[in-house]
Amino acid sequence: MRKTWVKRDNIYYKPFYKQKLKLTLIGVLGLGVLFFVYQLVYIKLGADGGSPPSATPLAANGGLHGSSNSDTGQHQYAYVERIGNHERMILRGIRLRDLDHYTEPASVSRASFRCLQTGRELSWDRVNDDYCDCPEDGSDEPSTNACVEGRFYCRFQKRHRTGRGRDRSIPSGWVNDGVCDCCDGSDEWLPIGGNLVPPRPCPNTCSTKYFL
């Protein structure tokens, strides 16, 4: 009679908890599923709420003080810029590195605006009120042409392709004068129906003058 060799595993029943390989694979798979679910929940919470900002962007002419302008909108002196995963209101005409100076705090610990050059304190409703309170640098009127010494910084802020020069800016008196001075046309921001508007939208010529 010929002998037939049979594996011991096929003769004796092996309990599941002793099957180490299967148990390890199932454990790893379970941890992977838990991690995936955790990531989905975390992303969902971040998209819905996220942490509230510590400061509120300034809206000119009383936009955050209860007297909004119904003709040109609550944020007529600001534009929306996407920074990372969030959108932020930025005042027109400011230098981006000065952004923190133009962000009205939610708390009352710093309840006044300070002129950039002299440090003179002003109430926030006097920013962009079309009256020059900081005549030395015009920093309280970044979006208007009220200050003789004021500078309007174009929305596109990048040095010339030669690598020289300062942040692109124009005299405040050139704002909304009907002439496109910024390469992106951001100095002519008045909507249709304003006092002075270009005959047609300003062309964007930044790509021909700057490295993008």
Q: Number of helix segments? A: 3
Average pLDDT confidence is 74
Shape: elongated
> Compute the gyration radius: what is it?
30 Å
Summing up helix and strand content along with how strands pair, one would put the structural category as alpha+beta
- β-strand percent reads 5-15%
Largest sheet: 2 strands, antiparallel
Distance between the termini: 86 Å
- Uncertain residue segments: 49-74
What is the helix/strand order? HHEEEEEEEEH
- How many individual β-strands? 8
Helix content: 10-25%
Strand order of the main beta sheet, please? Answer: 1-4
How would you briefly describe this protein structure?
Keywords: Disulfide bond, Membrane, Transmembrane, Transmembrane helix. The chain crosses the membrane at residues 21-41. The protein is an alpha+beta fold.
Question: Layout of helices and strands, plus pairs?
Answer:
Elements: H1 8-11, H2 20-48, E1 55-57, E2 78-83, E3 86-91, E4 103-105, E5 113-114, E6 121-122, E7 151-153, E8 169-171, H3 206-209
Antiparallel strand pairs: 1-4, 2-3, 5-6, 7-8
